[in-house]
């Protein structure tokens, strides 16, 4: 599964990366490397990109999503969302837009992806364009998630979340240092 995710994200990086490896400064590259090695960072996303299905298209056509949102991207600007890695722990709240493949509980609870606990199988590798591909597993009370993150030296980030009970979703945003909670890279 991780090999599949690696291949998907390598293709994803090639398509979405607007800058070549030579366009990042040595300082940006070094700061990202230090941040990754510290395992202490937060990602705040500006866009959610759900898998577009017929049901999702119906929701998009209803006009209930934020202004500027379309079939491929939903604006998260002004909405709470984060994914924080601190050592071997994760704390995340990511709004979920998409189809559930099976019910996970009763009570009409928030359908966001909420994680708080330990990471499993955390690995990272540097890519040709000086970005980092980070892979790990996490779980909440009812679901297991495979998460892939790509961090670029210019602070841009891409998160992809897979679960057996939801359609995949990805998020794009910015990585911040946990210590200062500011854009330090």
SSE layout and pairing:
Blueprint: H1 2-16, H2 26-38, E1 40-50, H3 54-62, E2 74-75, E3 82-86, E4 89-94, E5 113-118, E6 120-126, E7 132-139, E8 144-151, E9 156-163, E10 166-177
Antiparallel strand pairs: 1-2, 1-3, 1-10, 3-4, 4-5, 6-7, 7-8, 8-9, 9-10
Folded structure, characterized:
With 185 residues, this protein is α+β, with helices and mostly antiparallel strands. 20% of the residues lie in helices and 39% in strands. It is built from three helices and ten strands, in the order ααβαβββββββββ. Strands 1, 2, 3, 4, 5, 6, 7, 8, 9 and 10 form a ten-stranded antiparallel sheet that branches. The two termini are 31 Å apart. The model has no long low-confidence stretch (mean pLDDT 83).
Give short descriptive properties of this protein.
10 strands; 3 helices; single chain; globular; 185 residues
Which parts are unreliable, with pLDDT below 50 for 5 consecutive residues or more? Answer: none
Query: How large a portion of the residues is in β-strands, by DSSP E?
Result: 35-45%
- How are helices and strands ordered from N to C? HHEHEEEEEEEEE
Task: Briefly note the structural class of the backbone.
Answer: alpha+beta
Task: Please summarize the sheet with the most strands.
Answer: 10 strands, antiparallel
Total beta strand runs: 10
Q: What's the mean pLDDT score?
A: 83
Count of helical segments? 3
Radius of gyration, whole Å: 16 Å
Cα separation of the termini = 31 Å
Helix content: 10-25%
Shape: globular
